[in-house]
Specification:
Shape: flat
Order of helices and strands: HHHHHH
Number of helices: 6
Distance between the termini: 20 Å
Length: 94
Amino acid sequence: MLTTLAYLHNPANRNEVVQYIAAFHKIDPPLAEKAFTSILPSFSKDGTKPRQAVEREIEIYRETLKIAKTFTPDDLEEMGLLKKVQDVLARPGR
């Protein structure tokens, strides 16, 4: 997964990714480009989702689904395991 996220964030791969999106979803390349541009900020290179992106997703869901209850990104995702793995990998000698 981390390799894929790094690949997606590498500007050298952008054209290939956009072509893949267009072919997979059977949409025109300009629309695939817009879709990729809009979704990329939702994914980081380290497997987490930037808090601002999650907050925006919550807003979209609340508006679209007419959800009155408020909730935060912490209510949706528990990233404790990812944090533990990152800590282990960051230790010297690994």
